[in-house]
TrEMBL record:
Alphabetized HAMAP family for the sequence: HisC_aminotrans_2 (MF_01023)
Pathway: Amino-acid biosynthesis; L-histidine biosynthesis; L-histidine from 5-phospho-alpha-D-ribose 1-diphosphate: step 7/9
Entry GO MF terms: histidinol-phosphate transaminase activity
Keywords, in A-Z order: Amino-acid biosynthesis, Aminotransferase, Histidine biosynthesis, Pyridoxal phosphate, Transferase
The Aminotransferase class I/classII large domain, residue ranges: 29-359
Protein name: Histidinol-phosphate aminotransferase
Name of the gene encoding the protein in the UniProt record: hisC
Necessary cofactors: pyridoxal 5'-phosphate
Family affiliation: Belongs to the class-II pyridoxal-phosphate-dependent aminotransferase family. Histidinol-phosphate aminotransferase subfamily.
PANTHER family, alphabetized: HISTIDINOL-PHOSPHATE AMINOTRANSFERASE, HISTIDINOL-PHOSPHATE AMINOTRANSFERASE-RELATED
Residues found modified as N6-(pyridoxal phosphate)lysine: K230
NCBIfam families, per database record: hisC, PRK03317.1
Organism for this UniProt entry: Streptomyces lienomycini
Catalytic activity: L-histidinol phosphate + 2-oxoglutarate = 3-(imidazol-4-yl)-2-oxopropyl phosphate + L-glutamate
Length: 368
């Protein structure tokens, strides 16, 4: 017997749990982690090199702890794209929106407190809750993956969570959550006690609809989280951010590690923001490809969940893991999120999507 995790005095709530583990397999077509398939444009790569070179001259010093220039740039981006005015005091940034979520749970969750999400949804909400000692409550959805509002309100009334997560567009299902649903759950959550409501908009740039940022007006318990991993095509950068009332920004500063955002990260993200318009053009191409995937999958005879994201959930399969394997055997990696009967494919380049569609056409024939 080799010495393993179970032989270490790990916290009880971590025993028997698996780490986040999307397979990173070396196959020709990888459409499994909702990345943007387009490499950054060369002009942006050059600008990153310039900005990082400048930053390197000061690497003997700690970075700007409050990332003021970057947060100002992110606030300008949000204001420009949503029409809802925000400034540096409303925005906080961290290493990926995963870290933003962790800081929110460190500040508003923790031992003796609970958070709720409506599942299937982004599995890291529950995992980060566990990692911060926050109890996790799995809330309900309808069979078509929309949020069952009366059931969700009932779950909130019963469990009185301290944090409510709403992911829109939702991952892995792809559907967006209507503003009325978010408002209903926000209001339900405030009846028993003040409760933070985190709207995870990681994929909002790909949506047919608008961001919920305007709902922040007059709602100090609402938080919108965002990322540069998807629309900005910069998953490798690790830059996530939130928009909220300035008091929320003050609260997360109580738990952030000092100098958590490196000078290199800040410089790179600032360079990416300078190229927003070009990057958003790729988003338009990906939206068209996403819509093509939905239409072609339906034409092949699959069921598809409405998608407002850069990925599509399709089914139904008697054995989704076996189907995942059959698609992989054809050189295409999609994602089995453990939603029984369904798989998820990320919109790639037109060539990658064609390879995927050829693979699932063959699989469909085999299964018929
Ligand atoms: N939220 C959702 C809904 C996601 O799907 C992801 C990434 N898959 C994240 C947050 C985290 O993204 P990142 O840490 O790269 O910003």
């Amino acid at each position: 017997m080799t010495f393993g995790i179970d032989d270490l005095p790990v916290r009880d709530e971590l025993r028997g749990k698996s780490p986040y583990g999307a397979p990173q397999l070396d196959v020709p077509v990888r459409l499994n982690t909702n990345e943007n398939p387009y490499p950054l444009p060369e002009a942006l790569v050059e600008r990153i090199a310039e900005r990082v070179r400048e930053a390197a001259r000061d690497l003997n010093r700690y970075p700007d702890r409050d990332a003021v220039e970057l947060r100002t740039g992110l606030a300008a981006y949000l204001t420009h794209t949503s029409g809802h005015p925000l400034d540096v005091s409303n925005v906080w940034a961290a290493n990926g929106s995963n870290e933003v979520i962790q800081q929110l749970l460190q500040a508003f969750g923790g031992p003796g407190r609970t958070a709720i999400g409506f599942e299937p949804s982004y599995s890291m909400h529950g995992l980060i809750a566990r990692g911060t000692g926050t109890g996790w409550i799995s809330g309900p959805r309808h069979d078509d993956f929309t949020i069952d509002v009366p059931a969700a309100e009932k779950a909130i009334a019963e469990h009185r969570p301290d944090v409510v997560f709403i992911t829109t567009p939702n991952n892995p299902t792809g559907n967006a959550v209507p503003a009325e649903t978010v408002l209903a759950l926000h209001d339900a959550a405030q009846t028993a006690k003040p409760t933070m409501v985190v709207v995870d908009e990681a994929y909002i740039e790909f949506s047919h609809g608008a961001s919920l940022l305007p709902l922040l007006d007059g709602r100090p318990h609402l938080v919108v989280s965002r990322t540069m991993s998807k629309a900005f095509g910069a998953a490798g950068l690790r830059l996530g951010y939130l928009a909220a009332h300035p008091a929320v920004v003050d609260a997360v500063q109580l738990v952030r590690l000092p100098y958590h955002l490196s000078a290199v990260t800040q410089a790179t993200a600032l360079a990416a923001l300078e190229h927003t318009d070009t990057l958003l053009k790729y988003v338009e191409q990906l939206k068209a490809e996403r819509d093509r995937l939905v239409a072609e999958l339906r034409a092949i005879g699959y069921e598809v969940t409405e998608s407002d994201a850069n990925f599509v959930q399709f089914g139904r399969f008697a054995d989704s893991h076996e189907t995942w394997r059959q698609i992989l055997d054809r050189g295409v990696l999609v994602r089995d999120n453990g939603v029984p009967g369904w798989l998820r494919v990320t919109a790639g380049t037109p060539q990658e999507n064609d390879a995927f569609l050829d693979a699932v056409r063959e699989v469909k024939k085999e299964q018929n």
